[in-house]
Automatic annotation (TrEMBL):
CDD domains: ABC_TM1139_LivF_branched. This is ABC transporter ATP-binding protein. It comes from Ramlibacter albus. Gene3D superfamilies: P-loop containing nucleotide triphosphate hydrolases. Residues 6-239 form the ABC transporter domain.
Amino acid sequence: MSGDLLTLSGVHTHIGAYHILHGVDLSVPRGKLTMLLGRNGAGKTTTLRTIMGLWRASQGRITFDGKDITALPTPQIAGLNIAYVPENMGIFADLTVKENMLLAARGAKRVEQIDGERLKWIFQLFPAVEKFWNHPAGKLSGGQKQMLAVSRAIVEKRELLIVDEPSKGLAPAIINNMIEAFGELKRSGVTILLVEQNINFAKRLGDTVAVMDNGQVVHSGLMKDLAEDEELQHRLLGLAI
């Protein structure tokens, strides 16, 4: 199947008295990596949390694979094979890496029931996950925690992977490893929606891009077109890629 896997149409989100999203229109093409860019406070994280039902859309429609998910509770949204890696990663610090992975593998009650081939593939993407398999997750470095967070999200096959700033605070070498891993995930056919502030990360990985400002999508198109247009970059982001 082709076309858009996820669409947001006129989505508004209120958090308490604050009106954060002001009619977001966003399309995420099936099998592609879509970058969601914008200055701090533009509404990117709120958009991801609204997709996942963690914050409820007060107006508009969210559609996943042709199904209206706007009013679904978060567990049902996750049950549609949508994985979400929040900015804070959500690692269970007191559990081992292995226990964190087992919790995410909904089809397994014991580690031995996790798909062995898939686990081997994840270890190839993120060797640190295998290296620290029996270590408490809270003892990992920031980069290792981020690798674990993404690994948990893909321990079972997903239709859509949503990740909020995977390179934040990471050393350049770890960022390069993360870029390679997301490139491999793209080649595996998973659809990815990625919020990112690292422009090199966006340029190297993005197929399509949407730029947010003041709670709205103000630009959408091909990532390569934005990467080649310095005037558009300055106008939308205040910088040059």
